[in-house]
């Protein structure tokens, strides 16, 4: 890929396993195998970087991920359903950001906390902040009587939260985000929905959502900027790195960030045209409906970057997914208590992250390739220290023998990259003498 193009990519969120370093090779292999007037399918699009890079090379892409927020990001960055009015509607939407508000009755119970939080952040008072957060009337606070808002939520699990008791504030304030920040995030989420109801512009909708995901990803107070666990205040040393980060993260102005991201999206998406418009879908690649969706498309290459470890993406990215659907989630409990990560109940569990199910999951992918008879480009990462590191659910040999079963008429080659794979594990489990290797396995018809 040309350097200019790499700089043109919009990195919407900090995404584990996002393909940055191998991007050039992935794109050049896909370009080599791509046939005119066809599609390249990005089966597990995640942050959308690969889809974007292909698109910038004028290749029409079908981008897919089982997580809805991922398919929103692709839809936005691949200009899906962008109309002639979209850019002016987006400009209008930007103007309305500072005016959008949630009902003051919902803010009232948080008012004193917001003022105190601001003062304590300015004074860098860790003790005070810890104390303040311990009293906050959020759904996970089991030490206090439930507030009216929490009682309402408990009676409305699974129901939409638009223009009602603010979801983000009642679930994630005082942990992942600040209190004032959460109120603004709720206001923006409701504003985005309202804007869609008024204008019906799908591209603007995904652009606004993408900017919101970027905002969540920037301000979240967690290790690695994912949403697996908020960092609590356990130490009162102001020079401790997590405490320095706490003040940094809590000081972000949500509206300013959101508008900045929208302007960036505005500048980077441009008006690039491909022969046929790109498609963004949200499917489990194992579902029959996904195979049906691909059936009538002319596909020359499938690219796949599935998860290889037991770590579920739905756990690391549950918050953008909850914010997308904006329905009050029932929270998962462990030994009778809500988990620290505030995970929703019934998160999607990928078969690719299960030792017993991963091989069968790969069979469905190879079956898609067999049916389409297209070329197949597969990213693989290998941990040398399987016993102690991030154990892989399938080995390279497993993959090669499944390929032999489904596409014996294909030849394969492997490209190996020499750099560390970013581990998806908690720091305690990370193998420090990382020796992970990343590969690209390319299958093409003989
Ligand atoms: C390694 S990440 C992809 C990263 C992506 N290539 C990038 O550059 O950001 C794997 C993705 O697979 C998705 N996923 C996991 N199981 C899936 C399934 N059964 N069907 C579709 N997507 C799935 C996850 O949500 C995650 O976004």
From TrEMBL:
GO process terms (BP): methylation
GO molecular function, one term: methyltransferase activity
UniProt keywords, alphabetically: Methyltransferase, Transferase
Highest taxon, organism lineage: Bacteria
PROSITE patterns membership: N6_MTASE
Descriptive protein name: DNA adenine methylase
Species name: Bacteroides muris (ex Fokt et al. 2023)
């Amino acid at each position: 890929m040309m350097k200019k193009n790499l700089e043109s990519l919009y990195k919407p969120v900090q995404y584990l396993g996002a393909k940055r370093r191998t991007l050039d090779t992935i794109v050049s292999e896909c370009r080599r195998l791509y046939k005119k007037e066809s599609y390249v399918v990005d089966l597990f699009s995640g942050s959308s970087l690969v889809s974007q890079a292909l698109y910038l090379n004028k290749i029409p892409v079908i981008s897919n991920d089982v997580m809805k927020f991922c398919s929103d990001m692709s839809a936005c960055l691949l200009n899906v359903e962008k109309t002639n009015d979209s850019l002016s509607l987006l400009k209008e939407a930007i103007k309305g950001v500072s005016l959008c508000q949630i009902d003051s009755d919902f803010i009232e119970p948080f008012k004193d906390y917001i003022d105190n939080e601001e003062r304590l952040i300015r004074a860098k008072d860790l003790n005070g902040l810890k104390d303040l957060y311990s009293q906050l009337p959020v759904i996970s606070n089991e030490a206090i009587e439930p507030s009216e808002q929490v009682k309402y939520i408990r009676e409305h699990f699974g129901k939409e939260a638009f223009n009602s008791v603010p979801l983000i504030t009642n679930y994630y304030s005082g942990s992942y985000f600040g209190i004032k920040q959460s109120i603004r995030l709720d206001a923006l989420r409701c504003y985005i929905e309202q804007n869609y109801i008024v204008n019906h512009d799908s591209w603007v909708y995904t652009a606004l959502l993408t900017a919101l995901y970027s905002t969540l990803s920037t301000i979240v107070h967690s290790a690695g900027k994912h949403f697996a666990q908020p960092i609590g205040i356990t130490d009162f040393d102001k020079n401790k790195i997590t405490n320095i980060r706490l003040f940094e993260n809590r000081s972000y102005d949500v509206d300013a960030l959101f508008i900045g991201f929208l302007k960036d999206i505005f500048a980077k998406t441009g008006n690039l045209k491909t022969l046929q418009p790109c498609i963004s879908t949200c499917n489990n690649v194992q579902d029959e409906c996904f195979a049906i969706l691909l059936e009538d498309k002319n596909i020359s290459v499938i690219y796949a970057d599935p998860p290889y470890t037991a770590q579920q993406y739905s756990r690391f990215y549950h918050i953008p997914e909850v914010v997308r659907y904006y329905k009050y989630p029932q929270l998962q409990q462990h030994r009778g208590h809500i988990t620290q990560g505030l995970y929703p109940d019934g998160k999607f569990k990928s078969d690719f992250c299960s030792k017993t199910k991963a091989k069968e999951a790969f069979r469905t992918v190879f079956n898609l390739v067999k049916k389409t008879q297209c070329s197949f480009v597969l990213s693989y990462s290998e941990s040398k220290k399987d016993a102690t590191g991030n154990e892989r659910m399938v080995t390279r040999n497993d993959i090669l023998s499944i390929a032999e079963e489904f596409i014996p008429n294909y030849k394969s080659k492997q490209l190996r990259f020499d750099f560390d794979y970013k581990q998806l594990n908690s720091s305690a489990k990370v193998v420090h003498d990382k020796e992970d290797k990343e590969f690209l396995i390319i299958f093409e018809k003989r």
